[in-house]
Design goal:
17% strand; five-stranded parallel beta sheet; six-stranded mixed beta sheet; Rossmann fold; single chain; 3 domains; 357 residues; 434 Repressor (Amino-terminal Domain); alpha/beta
């Protein structure tokens, strides 16, 4: 007589005369652990394998037809997006898009939540990542370069919760994928643009970063400096200042730069806070003299392009960022390569003349 000592599955205890999980495993060619994952609708099983398991369960009469159909329909993924709080308009816009994704039909297989946490605090980011492992099937976050963050990512991976970095990456840890630009290339693009705007004449330019704790900002700085050194050696970089993506801090840093370098010819805003830079330029009545480049097309930077305060904005489509994350988590759930079918992020250079509708 067969042994019916299986653990309770899907609220249904094993009973005499009923097949066991082991029977389904033998018929489907899957392990008992895989069968359990499929019947309890947990992620990490290939679609073809899941179908074999469900077919075997149906043939053996393990579940009623209605329960088989329910098991075949995956539950929506619970996805958490951790973004820095503050007045970075692009990140605010991205957060609003994620929150409305379900209502707009952009995430039919997911339930997306957004949590804003204090910016530039790696210990808090690490604690928040680990604290949410039971509440999410996947976590996307803007990474800070710090050992505590790496350890948190690795702990999530150990617990079976994949993480994806957005906009700014972190290396040497078990994050599943990165959705964002090649930021070194982006910095080189900014250097090329500002060099072409200034011409071959000697000129002074400055950079204002959010924080070099973001790999994205550090890589943009490196790319910018290398391009100027290679192609525009007459352009002198007179300073790099951090403004933590804050409008008021960007305003004060720009005021200081203009005071120390009255012949300043260009500013590259590596992160957020473009509105603060623009306010300082207007007060000095130099908004039409100084070449000003920044990142992230928002209603605010759009207005600065239109009135001529900004000369160019390098941006990436927030919808593409969301779509990339959703595709990666869907791939991971189906045990596919995370980047299968995922389009790489692409930067756009926006001028007043090519503003999108």
């Amino acid at each position: 007589m067969p042994d019916h000592s299986d653990a309770v599955t899907m609220g249904r205890p094993a009973a005499a005369g009923l097949p066991r999980i082991a029977d389904i495993a033998r018929l489907s060619g899957a392990s008992t652990a895989t069968v359990d994952r499929v019947l309890n609708q947990r992620p990490g099983v290939r679609a073809a394998t899941a179908q074999r398991v469900l077919k075997a369960a149906a043939e053996l009469g393990y579940l009623p037809e209605g329960e088989i159909q329910a098991a075949a329909a995956p539950k929506p993924m619970r996805l958490l997006f951790l973004l820095p709080e503050g007045n970075n308009r692009y990140l605010t816009m991205l957060g609003q898009l994620i929150r409305s994704a379900e209502a707009q039909g952009l995430a039919p297989a997911a339930r997306c939540q957004v949590e804003h946490i204090k910016s530039f605090n790696p210990e808090l980011l690490a604690r928040t990542l680990v604290a949410n492992w039971r509440k999410a099937d996947g976590i996307a976050f803007m990474a800070l370069e710090h050992p505590a963050v790496r350890e948190a990512v690795n702990e999530l991976a150990e617990r079976g919760v994949p993480s994806v970095t957005v906009i700014s990456d972190i290396l040497n840890c078990r994050r599943a994928a990165y959705v964002g630009l090649d930021n070194r290339s982006t910095g080189r693009t900014a250097g090329y643009l500002i060099g072409r705007f200034l011409g071959r004449r000697p000129a002074k330019v400055a950079m204002i970063a959010g924080s070099l704790s973001y790999r994205a900002h550090e890589e943009r700085e490196m790319g910018f400096l290398h391009m100027l050194n290679e192609e525009f050696p007459s352009v002198e970089v007179v300073g790099l200042r951090e403004a933590h993506d804050d409008e008021a801090k960007s305003y004060r840093q720009t005021k200081t730069l203009l005071s120390h370098h009255p012949d300043l010819a260009g500013i590259y805003s590596i992160g957020g806070g473009a509105e603060g830079v623009a306010r300082a330029l207007r007060e000095a009545r130099r908004e039409r003299e100084i070449v000003f480049l920044g990142h992230g097309l928002t209603p605010e930077t759009r207005a600065l392009l239109i009135d001529g305060t900004m000369d160019a904005v390098i941006t990436q489509d927030p919808r593409g960022t969301l779509a990339g994350c959703l595709s990666i988590f869907a791939n991971l759930r189906a045990a596919r390569d995370p980047m299968q079918g995922v389009e790489p992020a692409r930067s756009e250079v926006i001028f007043r003349e090519n503003l999108p509708q």
